[in-house]
Amino acid sequence: MQRLIIRKEILSSVRDVRLQVAGIFLLSLMLVAVLVGRQGQQQIQKQRAEAQATMYDKWVNQGLKHPHSAAHYGQFAFKPKSALSFLDVGIDNYTGVSVFLEAHRQHEVLFSAAQDSNGMTRFGEMSVALVLQVLLPLLIIFLTFNVFTREREEGTLKLVHAQGVSMRQLFMGKLWGTYLMVLLIFIPVVCIAYFVLNRETAGLDPHNTGKFVALTLSYALYFLVFILLCILISAFSKSSTFSQLVLLGLWIVACIILPKATTNLADKIHPIPSQFEFRESIKEKVSNGIDGHNPSDVRLAELRKQTLEEYGVSTIDELPVNWSGIAMQAGEEYTDQVYDQEFSRIEEIYKKQNRLSEWVGFINPFLAIRNLSMAIAGTDFQHHVVFTRAAEDYRRAFVKKMNKDMEVNHKPGIAYGDYNVGEEMWSSVEPFAYHLPKLGSILKNQWRSVSALSLWLVVLFALVPLYIAKVPKL
Length: 474
Hints:
The protein has one domain (2-269, 321-473). By secondary structure, the protein is mainly alpha-helical. It has helices spanning 2-15, 17-60, 67-73, 128-144, 149-153, 157-162, 167-200, 206-236, 240-269, 275-288, 296-311, 323-360, 365-377, 381-409, 423-427, 439-445, 447-470, and strands at residues 75-78, 98-102, 105-106. 70% of the residues lie in helices and 2% in strands. Strands 1-2-3 form a 3-stranded antiparallel beta sheet.
């Protein structure tokens, strides 16, 4: 019997011309977003890979130079595009493209796409995620707002119940019938996206396969939550008009108002210091010490004393190594501590803001799926943090190599300009490589979003018996 109800719901939806047009429109929109998004993602990734190779080639072929001059000559690290970013652009347009790596300073990632865009960027870029998160739920509303109220208004609800169809069968039939209709729109997009991704990358690695499956299942869970919520509201509503108004109101609040309000609230509760304040704090701590009681000249004098004692000499000129190399590396390590402290403070503020959004996901499934989708697609804030840390580790490694060479090989008594190294030293520095986080670490970091969607599903299914118990009283 339940199978007949599912079939009836699917046929009713298919025969509705309005839903046919809306379904075809959304399907076409998503297919275009997949193809255009993938092409754009590939083009950007190719440009960044070429730029990374070009910058490294310039580093290797910079000619004869003092190691410390080379450390200031520096390199660039370009953020690679995640293979799944064409499905969800996330915050990629706002987090920058590349970072300059040089001695003494830790730069921010610059040249974001939003810097070169107009005010329309704030409304979001057309992507598969935007359609799935915002527009497809709107279609679900029009599929389900009168799924029970129509039966009640036409007087067929009690008639169906009297003919031996249990309310549980009726409810579940309508639920799974609607869900299958949504999957008929969703699955073709998934298949084409997988085909495009597989074809263009000449075989998916296990990493991307797992992430693609996880992303697909996440959206399937989101649709089920939304469909169940809509059907329950229709079941408990007295009229189709009331049900439609409630559902549209919830859609506006969940997809438009609450996300913006959450962002504003997070910014008020956890404000970010200005760029000027950030830079001044770093400058102050580098000059006067992290605790304010350890000035740079005092630190240098203490380091000189320790170095002379270590080598058992009384003057810098008597050292068997180059004092400048030692001092340079010590300065780097101290500056690194300052940058670590300041950047960690800023990262923690952003994490608190994002955490608030994740907690709000327990009352708004749209925020839960948005956060989870960005994370799996590799376009969320955490992926940006992982990239910046990898770039910084790379910077520290090659600067330390330059300082060490200066310390060991730039002998005392040799003028700064008389000591130079060449391609052999530059090529000993490996090219910058960045590896995206694995799926396990992503899901671990997004446990609140996963829990929020799961809890929504459990709570909504728990409400079904309430409706079933209410039916005989109608």
